[in-house]
C-alpha cells in the first residue's frame, strides 16, 4: 500500500461519474464531503497487499496513528487514489481494505471516507510545514515493530 | 520521470521554509503563485532520467502537449513533487529538468513553475471529469513515437 499524507486545512470532494460498471461503491459511504484541519490520506492498495489484507490494514492503521500523533489531530480523510502505484490490487481487495481501515479507526478518529470507483472533483490544501506531506509504503509484513512499513520522508522538492 | 496531471479550477502555492541548505531555488522562480483553469503537473524527476536529461525533457514536453491538447488549455503549473517516486534524481538534475521543461514550454504556454527545494503550502482543485487526473511514466528513451512514455490512465479508485 502506498500512502500519501497531507496535513490539510480542508479537503472536500464530490462524486461525478462512476468509473466502471459495478465498480463504484454506493452504500455506507458519502457521495460528497468536507473536513477541516485534518490529515488527508491518499491511498493506493497494491497487489502485494492481497497476500494478507488484514495485516496491511493493521499496519496502515499503525502508520495513521503515528502520523496523526505527530500532527496532533484525530481527523482523517481516507481518499482512494490510484495514482500512487503501478501495481494496484483488484477493486474488490481495495474496497475491502478501505472499509476495514475505516472500521479500525472509527472508534477513536473522526473519519471521512471518499467512495472507491468514482471520478470525483476535489479541493485539498496543504499546510506547508515540514511534516505536512509524508509518504509511506506499507506492506502486509506481520513482523513486530515498524517492519510492515517503510518511511519515505523526503525533501518536498 | 513520474507525472501526475490534475485538470484544475485553480492551483495556488506559497513557499514556507527551505528544505535543505543550498537546495532551494531562489532565482527566476516565484515564491508564491496562483493559476486558474490549468493543468497542474506534479513532477518527480527520477534517477533513470539522469542518463539523458535532454531526452526526458523532450518526452515530458510531448506528454504535456498531448494532455493539454485533450483538455484544451494552454495554462500549465509545473509543481516539483517528490512523492510520486521511490527513486529520485539528484536535486541538481531535478532542477535542470524543471527549468529546461519550462523553457521548452514557455514559447506557447502560460507556465507557472513552483520552486524546487522548499516546503510549500498549496491548494489545488480537480475538476472531476474522467480525464481530469492522468498519470504518466516518462523515460529518456529517444525512440520515435510514444516509446518514451508509458500511459497509466487508471480508474480513479
Ligand atoms: Mg509522443
Give a quick rundown of the structure.
The structure is a homodimer of 157-residue chains. Chain A has helices at residues 53-71, 91-106, and strands at residues 2-18, 32-44, 75-80, 110-113, 118-126, 133-138, 149-151.
List the helices and strands and how they pair.
Two copies of one chain form a homodimer.
Chain A (H helix, E strand, L loop, with lengths): L1 E17 L13 E13 L8 H19 L3 E6 L10 H16 L3 E4 L4 E9 L6 E6 L10 E3 L6
Parallel strand pairs in A: 2-3, 3-4
Antiparallel strand pairs in A: 1-2, 1-5, 1-6, 6-7
Helix pairs in contact in A: 1-2
The structure holds magnesium ion.
The site of magnesium ion has 2 residues of chain B, from loops.
- Assigned CATH superfamily of chain A: D-tyrosyl-tRNA(Tyr) deacylase
Name the helix and strand elements of chain A from N-terminus to C-terminus, one letter apiece: EEHEHEEEE
Instruction: Report helical residue fraction of chain A.
Output: 10-25%
Q: How many domains of chain A?
A: 1
Mean residue pLDDT of chain A: 94
CATH top level label of chain A: Alpha Beta
Oligomer: homodimer
Strand content of chain A: 35-45%
Main sheet record of chain A: 7 strands, mixed
Could you tell me which chain pair has the largest interface and how many residues each side has? A-B, 41 and 41 residues
Q: What Rg of chain A do the Cα atoms give?
A: 15 Å
First-residue to last-residue Cα separation of chain A: 23 Å
Q: What class, by secondary structure content of chain A?
A: alpha/beta
Amino acid at each position: 500500500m502506498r500512502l500519501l499524507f497531507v496535513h490539510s486545512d480542508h479537503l472536500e470532494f464530490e462524486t461525478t461519474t462512476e468509473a466502471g460498471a459495478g465498480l463504484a461503491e454506493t452504500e455506507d459511504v458519502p457521495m460528497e464531503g468536507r473536513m477541516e484541519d485534518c490529515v488527508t490520506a491518499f491511498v493506493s492498495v497494491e497487489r502485494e497487499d492481497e497476500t494478507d489484507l488484514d495485516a496491511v490494514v493493521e499496519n496502515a492503521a499503525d502508520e495513521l496513528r503515528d502520523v496523526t500523533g505527530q500532527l496532533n489531530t484525530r481527523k482523517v480523510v481516507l481518499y482512494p487514489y490510484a495514482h500512487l502505484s503501478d501495481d494496484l490490487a483488484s477493486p474488490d481487495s481495495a474496497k475491502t481494505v478501505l472499509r476495514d481501515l475505516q472500521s479500525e479507526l472509527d472508534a477513536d478518529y473522526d473519519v471521512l471516507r471518499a467512495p472507491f470507483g468514482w471520478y470525483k472533483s476535489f479541493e485539498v490544501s496543504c499546510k506547508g510545514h515540514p511534516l505536512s506531506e509524508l509518504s509511506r509504503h506499507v506492506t502486509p509484513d506481520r513482523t513486530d515493530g515498524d517492519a510492515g512499513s517503510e518511511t519515505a520522508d523526503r525533501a518536498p522538492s
